[in-house]
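Lab channel / #folding
Pinned by the channel admin:
"Please post every new chain as: sequence first, then the structure tokens as a reply. Keep commentary short and put observations after the output so the thread stays searchable."

First post following the new format, from NK:
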Amino acid sequence: MSPFTFASIETIPRVLQLVVGLLGLVFSIRGRSKGVSGLMVGAFVVMLVTTAAGIAWQFLSVEVPSWSASGNLSADEIRLIFMGVGIPLDAAALLSWLLVALAVVKSGRPPRQPGLAPVNYPMAAQPGFPATQPGHSQPIPPAQQPPGTQH
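Reply from TO:
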């Protein structure tokens, strides 16, 4: 088998990571309306960029034998190139996991804005209307209530 075939086979798990990352990004963006942290969206973006860069590097590294055969690069220089690419990729992967961890920690905290109620929280009664209770019908405005009845 050719080096390109080997590289293609080796990228299958990374392509699956891309698919899972895309799904996570879509769900985290949709979840933003339900209070999902923006850190989670950022984490998935970093994961996707890192995974795509890793796939590209996998295919670029197929040419390493020609780099060394050309005589322009020594083994130490090639190792330096691999280290120079590997460290930023690993640092970005670490960053994405840290963002996930921060988003999970942040999601367990109550909102910091005291004036905002959580989603699906009952709204306060409007002036001139009695307060509603969960499971009851909408109140009748005071002007339309029969005389002598109160809610």
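NK: Residues 3-106 form one domain.
TO: also worth noting, DSSP finds five helices and no strands in the chain.
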